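Subject: complex prediction, re-run

Hi both,

The earlier run crashed halfway through, so I resubmitted it with identical inputs.
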Amino acid sequence: MTSARDWRGLLFVAPFVLLYCLILVFPLLRGLWLSLNQVDLFGFGHFVGGANYARLIHDPIFRTSMINTFEVTLMIVPVLTVLAFALALALNSATKSAAILRGIFFSSAVLSVTIVTLIWRFVLAPDAGLLGYLWTELGWKPLPFLSDAHLVLPALAITTIWWSVGFPMLLFLAGLQQIPHDMYEAAALDNASWWTTLRHITVPALRRTIVLVVMLQTAAQLQLFGQSQLLTAGGPSGASRTAVLFLFETAFGQWELGYASAAAEVLFVIILAVTITQYWATGRATAQGGD
Amino acid sequence: MASLELKGVRKSFGSTPVLDDVSLTLEAREFIAFLGPSGSGKSTLLRIIAGLESADAGEVWLEGRRIDRLPPGERGVAMVFQHYALYPHMSVRENMAFGLRNARIASDEIDRRITDAARVLEIEPLLERKPEQMSGGQRQRVAIGRALVKEPKLFLLDEPLSNLDAALRLRTRVELAQLKQRVDAAVIMVTHDQAEAMTLADRIVVMNDRRIQQVGRPMEIYSRPANTFVAQFVGSPAMTLAAVSLAGGSGEYAAVQLGDGTLVKTRVRRSALPKQGELRIGIRPEAARVGGKGGTNGKVDLVERLGERTLIYARLSDGQPITAEDAGDSRVKIGDEVPIKIDGAAAHIFDANGAGYHAADA
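This time it finished cleanly. Structure:
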């Protein structure tokens, strides 16, 4: 191996490496550094060590926002996964109507969060919203989805599920189409019912896709932000403030960049830990071949 | 009692008909091969019997019970798929047990059947393996085992040997023949390989162009082909077909004249042949020997040395191609002019519609 050849090789990867360092590695390290400083949007700040992290531990607003984030993620991910799977199962056919419905269910995914929250504000508003109208028609009292501390997280979850179901549905459809058709024919000859076929043929064949969807969605929903900011601004009284909304408010409302960065690092570590745990747990289950 | 009965089965895919009025009866424990080229409808027919396709018209009966309206799992048939279709996340044992569990068979009975089948197929060491950990031949055995444990009334084999290499194919062919002796059920095998059909089947159903062309024992199909399609499809290399004219005379058997003037005295009854229309003679390579006197001459286009015999592809003086046979140590070369003696007693005659006429039984 000659060093000249090494250099030529490096030249080929240099554009990527430079860009990668510039937009990923540098901000990551910069964020880490910021989290160890007390700094506002305009000043240079000064080094405070772990003080920002110590403050986070005792900050009830941060704690509530983390709990809210976990709660809403737990509401969204299982329902979203099952719903996307069910839609994919129902729409996995070559008919024209299935193709149209696939398009319709995916269409929400191309909307921006602004449009999505606007639409759901019309649906959820108790006085003039679609659900409020429906409730009134049924003779019930309209539910104040966006102003009740117990209903606001489910409302965020419903909005998010409606918005996000398209992509996991596509992943499941792609997975379903990978399953050889003769597998189902063999199952039919093996007298397997619809449910048995689903449980013993389809779900095991989609195990990797299910893991992928759960991991991607968990990581995405732990960063839920726009829906909470635009629908409720974190209210009522912080009941729908998520971790990223907390960061945003701290950084760009209170101009405490160092403190916000510390919160961001904590969230980063948590997302990383959750994802690695899921990967490890499902990897082990797959290796054991357990159903 | 008849095992399987097909009555007037028809099937179209959209506007394309694939099966046209197919009727067939299988005897008990009979091994039948559906033989035909791609697109002949043989696989569709198998899938209709299995219940994986529905017939547009007609009935399917198995051991006195009409099954064409039953779901596949309730028909009493088991199928070995061309690509095996083993469940990838299940072990061999689970693959074999799956259908039995769905049929609510007691677990000790399931174990007994799996143990028996594994012993017969010599797959006992593989029982805890997953399909991805096995070779093609092993998967094939497992696929057969999965069918075997169901103790079906009818086995359906869809091109069972097509995915195996040549050596394994021969071995598996022998094993299938042995398996046939063990099972108390009829077997239908779909194949486009005539050697498989000839060696394994009790009877061959030759299919082409949506219809059954001929049903018969292997040697019957070979020596008394019903029409030109069967004559050319079965037998390798294909039978030579040459236009002939009926020679004059009043003998019991027809004599015909080839384009180059050669007279061939067949053993086909003159009275059986149509009075009008074109005729063609069918000559298998073994009925056209190189050498001898009183025959015709051909110019050699190609020589194929097979070891125990040599195939000579030649042209008669009028340009008619003919495939003849010579001894294994033949010295014939391309371009040679060789004498060819045609055995009229083994020749066939086909009429303008392609229907075959054969040597009358002496």
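The interface with chain A takes residues 50-52, 71-74, 77-79, 81-83, 85-91, 98-99, 102-103, 130, 146 of chain B (CB under 8 Å).

- K.
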